[in-house]
Amino acid sequence: MLLPGHQPQILWKQHCAGLGSAGEDRSIANAHRGGSVIQWRRWVFPVRLATRMARDLAAETVFRAKHQPARFPQPDSKTPTVTVDAVSRAIGHGAAFIHHSQHTDGSFRGWFLPQPGAAISWPTAHAALVLDDVPELESVCHAAAMYLHAAGLQHQGWGYNDLVRNDLDTTAQALIVLHRHGLSPPLLALWMVVQAQAPSGGFPTFAPSAPGQTPRNSSELPHADVTLLVVHMLQRLGVQADARERALAWLATQEATGTLPAFWWSSPVYSLWAQTFAGLATEMTWRIAHALLDHLSTQPYLAMVLRAALGYKHLDGASAAATSRLLGQQRLPGHHQALCMPGVPRRR
Questions:
Q1: Are 18 and 203 in contact (CB under 8 A)?
Q2: Less packed terminus of the chain by CB within 10 Å, N or C?
């Protein structure tokens, strides 16, 4: 049983049955229409995409015009001295920028791709996840959680945006955020994650179209970075202990080189961060992260590896130098420029 007092299997079957009956009616009608259905499908997505792009672009233009963040002085040096005051100022400037970057509905907008448009749920969930322990951003995280709660009830899960099917990476992070803020999760979203577990024990980015179905592409294969967050989500919510144990056993088989690969990211640094965040880091994780400190300078990788390295040691020479570079890279009006971007998700 997934949650005490609930039967998600029955709810899931009822949900699918409801979709199925409507689908049968559509199938009968489609059989009469023949090839016209295929032609309709060919142009309906471009229309939806064009509408989405226009709406996102207009919303972003208006948002940027109305929200001009305060401008702060640039650091005196590209490698400023790491002091409590310097770190506090950087946090304050960054928090002010984040406050101004949040939309009125509580969401954040991420990278703007030609297809499928602006990212919404993933940046909102990830921001609320990693900023939850920053006191200056408590109200920001709560507003993000309220947005995710409403979006999850509407879509029974979360994905890149509503043109892309729900994925386990975004959904796992959103479920953790909801749990932190005392908001009940959509039961079908939680069940979607659990039933997507591969026989090997790992979790994919996208659930297969049907349980037990052969994966159609790499995004339906299990991935370590996704599995780490799903495992942490299951532990935080206190559900599906058997699924969590099988996932942990699968993760143990993926660490032959000491690092776990990341599907969406061009560097395994994201997995080092995820291991640390999920409480699954080992001494090898911390040693690898510490060894990488001198070799990384771009964001968000430097911040991620620094977070992982500090789990191994307190601030030493290498981590102090990395922190200094991080402080020196803060831009006006308080942000850091990201020089990497995850992969493009597949549309629904």
A1: no
A2: N
